[in-house]
Amino acid sequence: MGRALIESGSHVHGVDPALFGLPPGTSMRFELPAGALAPCVSDYHVFDSDQAACTFSTETILPRVPAIRFIIAPHAMNLTIGDGTAQTIPPAALYGSTSHAAEMAVGRGGVTIGVTMTAVGMARLTAIPADSLRDRVVPLSAVLPAEPVRDLVDELRASDQGPSVKAILDRALPPLLAQPHPMEADIQRIANLLAAPGRHTVQDACDHLGMNQRRLERLAKRFFGFTPKLLLRRTRLLRSIVALKLAGPPFDLSLIDSNYHDHSHFTKDAKRFLGKAPMRFLRKPTPYLDAALRARAIVQGTAWAALQHQ
Fold first, then answer.
1. DSSP label of 50
2. Is 251 exposed, middle or buried (0-12, 13-18, 19+ CB in 10 A)?
3. Domain 17-180: CATH superfamily, name plus number
4. Distance CA 235, CA 307 (A)
5. Has residue 1 got a pLDDT over 60?
6. What are the protein's GO molecular function terms (predicted)?
7. pTM value?
8. For residue 70, which phi and psi values (nearest 5 degrees)?
9. Domain boundaries, the chain
């Protein structure tokens, strides 16, 4: 018999974790941060698995926005971003914004706790430019003092690692995110544009924001990690893949973003961001990712943070 898993669900009223459709040997929580943290944090999430009862040993992660992650499991977990080499995830880690799908080898399973950051939150958290962190994972102590990071990890380890996590993070994060960044208004406007359907060219984005292309490119790299063109392509691809995954087989291609002018256009983006053709990616079993998309959509209203209008 496997060990007891954390309690699946959410503090959001009315959420039924049975609707997450979790695979055997796994559990999951998604939480909304305290209201004052909403400009900086998209969600909290807690993932747990027991390999004695689980049917998979790796988890697929779509290209994503930055996140803090705590490895509470008593053993190492490895992450491979795109076609890069596997790296051991630090016990307290900061994920930069990514432009490739990743594979996380969970070993014997165990609890991981995540904090999905907004671009505004990252600007408050660290002065390190986002393009220096893109497609990378670094120790959280690279951007925060080591002692409070250790204290937070210790408190999370000593907790039930499930329902109590939200309150712990709601208390711990405000002091780290208290100082507003002078560029927040522009950062937020760009974030809203990236999440909104219908913006598909850099010139269209510039016109909407009232910025010239040089300024938009500089701000996008500094606070979002990539050029505006790549960010718009990533959003378009994610919107399409998430819609297809939530709908499930037979994967009706009429669900893809209307800005794709043909299937080859969609395939080109899928190969760039997912490393393979879209149907090949969709046919690969990803039961835990699928459950996470369903769970986040139920709790947050949006299945993937990169698509969430802040």
1. B
2. middle
3. Jelly Rolls (2.60.120.10)
4. 7
5. no
6. DNA-binding transcription factor activity; sequence-specific DNA binding
7. 0.95
8. -115, 125
9. 17-180
